[in-house]
Amino acid sequence: MAGIYIHIPFCIQRCSYCNFFSVVSINLVNEVINAIIKELSIRKDYLKNEPVQTIYFGGGTPSLLTIQQIEKLLNTVYTNFPVEQNAEITFEANPDDLTKNYLFDLKKVGINRLSIGIQSFDDDKLKILNRRHNATQAHEAVREAQKAGFSNISIDLIYGLPFQSLDEWETDLDKAFSLSIQHLSAYGLTFEEKTLLSKQKEKKIIEPADEELMIKMYELLLEESSKKGFDAYEISNFSLPGFYSRHNSSYWNQTAYLGVGPSAHSYNGISRQWNVAAIQKYTEGILKNSSFYEQEILSLEDRYNEYVLLGLRTKNGINIDALEQNFGTELKDFCLENIKTFIDNEKAYRCGSFLRLNTKGKLISDTIIAQLMKV
Predict the structure, then answer these.
(1) Per-residue pLDDT, 170
(2) Which residue, of 162, 250, 289, 300, has the fewest CB within 10 Å?
(3) pLDDT tens, 14-65?
(4) Within a 13 Å sphere around the CA of 196, how many CA atoms are in the beta-carbon half?
(5) What's the rounded Cα separation, in Å, for the pair 274 and 244?
(6) Closest CA to 120 of 68, 42, 198, 173
(7) Average pLDDT, the chain
(8) Burial class (CB in 10 A: 0-12, 13-18, 19+), 297
(9) Any bridge partners for residue 274, and if so which?
(10) Who's near 366: CB < 8 A, 6+ residues apart?
């Protein structure tokens, strides 16, 4: 099985927290779409004819595309890859782009899962994040999507925002679950280098939430999502039964995937490659048949590190038998030895052949995972 990720690197304005590759301009959209179409064609053998289970439009802001552009991209995928009939096709969107007509047309061309970037239902917080929608538009986008026939809707929220209280985070969660969504992705705010929020933090204009508050916010997230029947199947992802993100799960399960578009990554179990993060270099490389990506052949230790990094973030954890089978006794023993302290401190536990993090462990997952890395 395999997945395809399509990166649309365009935004109307840059969010203050975002460090993903994108440009604040739409002048080159057609040129990039044509390059992506060609890339899909010239890389049609990358997945070795594996059935494609998931297609994901990410960004940037895919909802800046016209329906005709989306349809062209999908038709190119169908022409060059064996796509399963019930494939999950996810489309990231900004709330203010989701008009009634646009939603009906998205459904018509085959989009069957929406990921709506709401981030907060508080207008003041949305201004801090430099989002271009407001709370009313966020609610309307979900309601209109449901009216258009979408029954698999995910929304994104961020907690630990500047000046955000625990009560305000609880209000955001209440409003999210009141919308009868099927999936929630919720992320603790991080201050990425070169972002506006990072610069504001350096200048003491804003301060990050303290560690104790972040812990309380995450614990509240776990508690409230569980009450609503949502399964915490990954540290930042929660869904009703049957509504896991199949595409994102393929990353965590290390399924092969092809990423197309500027800065997109691909993985086939042996190597990882990434397209150049520059519009002109990407389009020229594609259209002139010259280099447009870099590649890294993964060593045994690289693959072990990725397995641990991705697996421990999930509900299932990491399989000890798979560790030995795929990476050998030495790396399995290394993992067991280094996680022992966290098991003794009740941050992790062993369940049969699996190693998993409990709630306390999830709160310090980066620390635990770093300890298990083979450098």
Answers:
(1) 98
(2) 289
(3) 899 998 889 998 899 999 999 999 999 999 999 999 999 999 999 999 999 9
(4) 12
(5) 26
(6) 173
(7) 95
(8) exposed
(9) 265, 294
(10) none
Give the separation between CA 48 and CA 257, rounded to whole angstroms: 11
List all residues 6 or more positions away from 293 whose beta carbon is below 8 Å from its beta carbon.
273, 274, 275, 276, 285
Alpha-carbon gap, residue 152 to 139, rounded angstroms = 16
* Helix residue ranges per DSSP H, the chain: 29-42, 67-80, 100-109, 123-128, 135-147, 166-177, 196-202, 211-227, 246-252, 279-287, 300-311, 320-327, 329-344, 359-363, 365-372
Task: Choose between 233 and 251: higher pLDDT.
Answer: 233
Q: How far, in Å, CA of 72 to CA of 262, rounded?
A: 18
Q: d(Cα 160, Cα 218) in Å, to the nearest integer? A: 9
C-alpha distances in Å from residue 157, one per residue of 63, 129, 130: 18, 12, 14
pLDDT of residue 254: 86
Residue 356 DSSP symbol: E
Chain length of the chain? 375
**Token pair recorded at residue 75:** 């038709």
| pTM, to two decimals | 0.95
Residue type at position 16? S
Name the token pair of 248.
């994102």
Query: pLDDT digit string (tens) for 234-288?
Result: 999 999 999 999 999 998 888 999 999 999 999 998 999 999 999 999 999 998 8
Phi-psi region of 242 (alpha: psi -120 to 50; beta: other; left: phi over 0): left
Q: Give CB contacts under 8 A, 24+ apart, made by 101-110.
A: 102/63, 102/67, 103/144, 103/145, 103/147, 103/148, 103/150, 104/148, 104/149, 105/67, 106/67, 106/70, 106/148, 107/148, 107/149, 107/150, 108/67, 109/67, 109/70, 109/71, 109/74, 110/74
Burial 52-61 (b: 16+ CB within 10 A, else e): bbbbbbbbbb
Pull the structure tokens for residue 369: 């995972």
pLDDT (0 to 100) of residue 47: 95
CB 231 within 8 A of CB 239: yes
Task: Output 157 or 211, whichever has higher pLDDT.
Answer: 157
